[in-house]
Amino acid sequence: MKAIIYYSLSGRTKRELKNRFEGDYFQLKGKLKIPRNYWLQMIYLGMFSILNKSLDYDDFEIDFEKYDEVILGSPVWAFTINTFTKKFLRRNQFKNKKVTLLLTHEGGPGNAMKHFKRRIDKSNEIVNTLSLQLGSAYKEATLYKKKKTK
Fold it and tell me: Residue 60 has what DSSP assignment?
């Protein structure tokens, strides 16, 4: 059985996971007021990533003993995984699992996959890594769609 754990601000990471995997989904929901403007988000959230600040999220219970595989999904922010995923991996050490890592990004992922792998316990086996360049999320970002005027 698979546990699929992800953070998705625009919905793109979630969509890519849903297109590829079946299992129990767990979404990381940040406890941070995020600006609605796409460009301000990139600056604001990128700053937290660059400074390696761990931001809190709404906690949830997950019994890793129920799962033989863990799939982790993260957008790339400032060439690394997002801060909510970093904090989740720091708080939740799972061992002896098959692990798949999925990144979504607009341009190059930089060292994000290397950062992702570093946070996984050595007892786990990374069976797959996916780095998906999806282009700009600006036009389809769900938080920023302009209201249609009549």
Answer: -
